[in-house]
Specification:
By secondary structure, the chain is an alpha+beta fold. It has a domain of 59 residues. It is 27% helix and 30% strand. Strands 1-2-3-4 form a 4-stranded mixed beta sheet.
Length: 102
């Protein structure tokens, strides 16, 4: 967990889970003052730097959508894109197998 602190108060935090080859951002949070002083930017920058020190091959910024992938959170996507993140679109299909009761 990376935390931005100002004075004695936490202003923003990120949970970054390192795997063998990937550092994955799982959760992010910040309060009003953290938003005002760009704490998330500082914490994200630190998480990226730390993942480089751990020699992970990839940095996974996590999802930028809502409602189970139906809606793009454009603000969050733009924030991540500012660090060089890109997007991947997944298409999901539901197929009936015709195995209903006979």
């Amino acid at each position: 967990m990376s935390v931005a602190v100002r004075g004695s108060r936490e202003q923003g935090a990120k949970e970054c889970v390192p795997y063998a080859r990937v550092a994955h951002v799982q959760y992010s949070a910040s309060n009003a003052l953290g938003n005002a002083v760009a704490a998330q930017t500082v914490v994200m920058d630190y998480a990226i730097e730390k993942s480089g020190e751990l020699r992970t091959r990839y940095f996974d910024f996590g999802i930028s959508n809502e409602r189970g992938g139906e809606v793009l959170n454009e603000g969050l996507y733009g924030f991540k894109a500012g660090f060089g993140a890109g997007g991947v679109v997944h298409e999901f299909y539901e197929l009936g197998l015709g195995l209903g009761s006979a």
